[in-house]
Write a structure and sequence with these properties.
The chain is 40% helix and 19% strand. It has 9 helices and 8 strands. An 8-stranded parallel barrel has the order 1-2-3-4-5-6-7-8, surrounded by 5 helices. It is globular.
Length: 205
C-alpha cells in the first residue's frame, strides 16, 4: 500500500452529487492522502455517477480512491480498492477479484484477532474505532488507543476512525495510528479545507 500515513477522508452520505463533488474538491488539495466513497443509497445509478466523478477527481489530485463495501462498483469506476467489514472471506474474495495491487481495507472495531485474520486474508490496512464518541455511528464499539501500538506487529498501516477532530488528532497519532479517518469533523465544518490542513499537519509535527 503506497499511502501509509496521513488524512483519510470519508465522504458524507448525500444524494446531492454536485455538493458532494464541491466538498471533496475543496479538501483534496489540503493534505488528503486517501478518500473513501461511502454511500448507503439503494440507487445504483447515483452511486455509479458519484463514484465515477470522485475517482476522476482523486486521480487528478494524486489521491488514493477506494469504495466502501462494493467490490464491483470499485471495479466499474477504476478505484484503487475497497473497504470491507468484518468478513475475512469477503476480503480474500476482494483480493482475488481486484488483484495484488488493490488497496483493501478492513474494519476491525476493537479486535486485534480480527485484524490479524484480515491481514492474513489479504487486507492492506486495518481500521480500529470508534476511538472517540462518533456522531456518524453513535452506538459504535469503542476502541482503546493502545490497539495502535499493539497492531504494529501485523506489518500493515493502521487507521483510526470515530470522533476524530483537530483537537484530539495528535493524541491518536501519538498512540501509533498511521492514518486518521474523518467524516463529520471534516465535511460538516464551516471551512473543510482549513480542517483538512489542521488534521494533515498532525503528521508533520
Amino acid at each position: 500500500m503506497a499511502t501509509r500515513e496521513g488524512l483519510y477522508a470519508i465522504t458524507p452520505d448525500t444524494d446531492d452529487s454536485e455538493r458532494l463533488i464541491e466538498l471533496v474538491g475543496d479538501v483534496l488539495p489540503h493534505g488528503v492522502r486517501l478518500l473513501q466513497y461511502r454511500n448507503k443509497s439503494q440507487d445504483p445509478v447515483r452511486r455509479l455517477w458519484q463514484a465515477s466523478l470522485l475517482a476522476s477527481l482523486c486521480q487528478s489530485h494524486g489521491v488514493t480512491f477506494i469504495v466502501n463495501d462494493d467490490v464491483e462498483l470499485a471495479l466499474s469506476v477504476g478505484a484503487d480498492g475497497v473497504h470491507l467489514g468484518r468478513d475475512d472471506a469477503a476480503i480474500a474474495a476482494a483480493r482475488a477479484r481486484l488483484g495484488p495491487d488493490a488497496v483493501i481495507g478492513a474494519s476491525c472495531y476493537d479486535d486485534l484477532a480480527l485484524a490479524e485474520a484480515a491481514v492474513a486474508a489479504g487486507a492492506s490496512y486495518v481500521a480500529f474505532g470508534a476511538v472517540f464518541p462518533s456522531g456518524t455511528k453513535p452506538n459504535a464499539v469503542r476502541a482503546p488507543l493502545e490497539l495502535f501500538g499493539q497492531a504494529k506487529r501485523f506489518g500493515v498501516p493502521t487507521v483510526a476512525i470515530g470522533g476524530i477532530t483537530p483537537a484530539n488528532a495528535g493524541e491518536v497519532v501519538a498512540a501509533g495510528a498511521d492514518m486518521l479517518a474523518v467524516i463529520g469533523a471534516l465535511f460538516d465544518a464551516a471551512d473543510p479545507a482549513q480542517v483538512a490542513e489542521r488534521l494533515a499537519a498532525t503528521f508533520r509535527r
